[in-house]
Amino acid sequence: MVAARSYAPIAPLPLAFLGLGTMGAPMAAHLARAGHRVAVYNRSAVKAKAWVAEHGGQAFDTPAAAATGAHMVFACVGNDDDLRSIAQGPDGALAQLAPGSVFVDHTTTSAELAREMAAQAQALGLHFIDAPVSGGNVGAINGALSVMCGAEAEVFERVRPVMEAYARTVTRLGGAGAGQLAKMVNQIAVAGLLQGLAEALAFGHKAGLDLRTVLEVISQGAAGSWQMQHRGPTMVDDQFDFGFAVDWMRKDLGLCLDEARRVGASLPATALVDQFYADVQQQGGGRWDTSSLIRRLR
User: Fold this and answer.
1) Boundary-marking domain end, from 157, 175, 193
2) What are the pLDDT digits (tens) for 135-162?
3) Is 260 inside any structural domain?
4) Looking at the structure, do residues 125 and 103 belong to the same domain, yes or no?
5) Position 9 in a domain
6) Active-site residue 49, yes or no?
7) Of 37, 151, 164, 266, which is most buried, counting CB atoms within 10 Å of its CB?
8) Is the pTM of this model over 0.90?
């Protein structure tokens, strides 16, 4: 269920949203609740029809059909190949957008693909914004995502008020690809934080401490973080059937490591944590939350 929230006044627009997964469905719902006319597409038509039954709008069988007449198209799918499949080709959204329209991609992809998409959009007289998000499913439901954008300044300002329907912050980091690069920075930091938290809690358990009390104390000090507050207690309880899946984190860390090789950056800890996540996958935890790193240490 999408959480109730207030929305800044903005003239209703014809929009399309492509991809109604755990992130896309609540994001699109916020757009509908803000008063926009939202056309949707999802690879599983059943999900699209269920979304329309709850939020209104109209579901379409192809991305191109959903995008027809839309001033802005928003996408949130799984990976580079998924984005290409809904954006490019005769059934892709780009083919049906009128000149001047904007395609906003919330998928976490490679920066290289973001630049490729921006160039393709420009050749068609369109605009492209790479806009990966942070905040997870809960952030999407509550309209409290952090959105990191790579875009032309004028286009960003045009779309920003629309994105604010589901975001706490919407920030332009630079030109095409900058949003994806910023998301890589985010994922590198998150991976390190989670491994540190996993080791800390595993140590505290072996030492015989009351971990809930320990978390209450240290979360108020220099070690405190979002991960500690929201994932520390569930790590103590050994519960991981929610949240951001290990499979997706490995996909993201693969993008980080590829880009690091391209730019000559050293990510030794990130490479190590990526292998730890591979161990979790071997334990059958591909769909577990990323905080399941602690399972390796038990």
Assistant:
1) 175
2) 999 999 999 999 999 999 999 999 999 9
3) yes
4) yes
5) no
6) no
7) 151
8) yes
In which domain, by residue range, is 245 found?
A: 182-297
Considering the domain architecture, whether residues 211 and 140 belong to the same structural domain is answered as no
Rounded CA separation 172/183 (Å) = 12
**pLDDT of 1 above 70:** no
83 in any annotated domain: yes
What percentage of the chain exceeds 70 in pLDDT?
99
Per the structure, how many domains does the chain have?
2
**Side chain identity at residue 182, one-letter code:** A
Query: What pLDDT band is residue 7 in, cutting at 50, 70 and 90?
Result: confident
Q: How far apart are CA 199 and CA 145, in angstroms?
A: 28
Q: For the range 45-54, what are the long-range contacts, defined as Cβ-Cβ under 8 Å and sequence gap of 24 or more?
A: 47/20, 48/20, 51/20, 51/25, 54/29
DSSP 8-state code for residue 289? B
pLDDT tens digit sequence for 234-243: 999 999 999 9
Q: CA-CA distance, 158 to 76, in Å (whole number)?
A: 20
Residue 212 to residues 236, 243, 269, Cα–Cα distance (Å)? 8, 21, 27
- Domain assignment present for 125: yes
Burial readout 25-64 (b: 16 or more C-beta within 10 A, e: otherwise): bbbbbbbbbbebbbbbbbbeeebbeebbeebebebbebbb
Residue among 47, 49, 183, 206 flagged as catalytic: 183
Residue 141 shares a structural domain with residue 188:
no
Write the burial class of residue 214 (CB in 10 Å: 0-12 exposed, 13-18 middle, 19+ buried): middle
| Residues 171 and 186 grouped into a single domain | no
**What distance in Å separates the CA atoms of residue 177 and residue 131, rounded to the nearest whole number?**
9
